[in-house]
Amino acid sequence: MQFELHKTYPDHLEAEWNALLDESITHVPFLRHEYLRIWWGTRGGGEWPDSELALVTARREGELVGVAPLFKAKNSRGQTVLFLLGSIEISDFLDLLVRPPDLDEFLDGLLEFLSGPQLGGWDVLDLHNLIESSPSLPGLERAAARRGWTCSVQKMYHSPYIPLPGDWDTYLASIDKKQRHEIRRKMRRAEEGGRVRWYFTRDPQALDESLAALFDMMRQDPEKDAFFSRSDSMVQTMIDTARCAFERDCLALAFLEIDGKKAAGYFCFDYLNRIWVYNSGFASDMMELSPGWVLLGYLLQWANEQKRKEFDFMRGDEDYKYRFGAIDRFVMRLTLTR
């Protein structure tokens, strides 16, 4: 394999990159070329204002066979660190891009390349947001051992998901009886409490207005308001991400209206026959009708009817996810030091 360092984002690689992602060890929306281009353009919504691209590609006989989408920045201890693009806050799942048969050769070559003069000085390779089933975890442990490097892996976040049976009644029958009745009761109560409708934003002319409404509801949560307030570019990053997903027909932006007023919204990706729940917002003055639960119920019913195979809540161990029958899973962090 021939390795190459990219210090500016390689726009020309989009087609090759996404074709490789289709066959890669981990395939998630946060690894698409266009998503990471948006992320890098705002440095993660302002999370990494002082950073330097250190993206590494590998080719064999001219074919793109591996991508290590890295950047270099200082951590809180003043160390120079190589992170994955997308780290840490706004991209739930990350990884390296490589086909399973090429993994060990790619990792050995990558660590050799990172040790060379092209990267300059660095102290730690710090990879966040790796799904616990990622082959990168044991692969990097093996590669590090071969080089005598120190490797550490730790659990960072719960990341529950629901396997979907493809039928709403079958799904409901699979969860706790008490919770099943609670979901039905809340949906019935909302319908009885006023004129209820739910829908996806499909009209491109309505997208910006819909996003503004969602962000307004999100800001009614103090934690999410603080998140948005960290940087002037955070909201723009979310808008650009949503527009990009909309243009590629993989945005599922859902709203619940009660008596004509938006009561809840979910920003999801509809990708790889899965629903990926990215963010949500709720109207604080309508919480007595449990609009979040109601809209989530409609989304799960729709996802089953559309034969989606999984409903992924991504990072976060909020109690409601498990009440809806989610299975636990963890997101990991791997660090390598020379």
Notable traits:
single chain; 338 residues; alpha+beta; Aminopeptidase; 2 domains; 6-stranded mixed beta sheet; 36% helix; elongated
Can you tell me about this structure?
This protein has 338 residues and is α+β, with helices and mostly antiparallel strands. The chain has two domains: 2-158 and 332-337, Gcn5-related N-acetyltransferase (GNAT) (Aminopeptidase, 3-Layer(aba) Sandwich), CATH 3.40.630.30; 161-312, 3-Layer(aba) Sandwich (Aminopeptidase). The protein is 36% helix and 28% strand. The protein has twelve helices and 16 strands. It has helices at residues 14-22, 33-41, 43-46, 103-114, 136-147, 168-174, 177-193, 207-218, 222-228, 234-247, 291-305, 319-323; strands at residues 2-6, 51-53, 55-60, 63-68, 70-74, 80-84, 97-98, 124-131, 150-158, 161-163, 196-200, 251-258, 261-271, 274-282, 310-312, 330-337. The strands form three sheets. The chain has a six-stranded mixed β-sheet, covered by helices on one side. Strand 14, helix 11 and strand 15 form a beta-alpha-beta unit. Helix 8 crosses helix 10 (234-247). The longest helix is centred in the middle third of the chain and has 17 residues, at 177-193. The two termini are 22 Å apart. The relative contact order is 0.16. The model has no long low-confidence stretch (mean pLDDT 96).
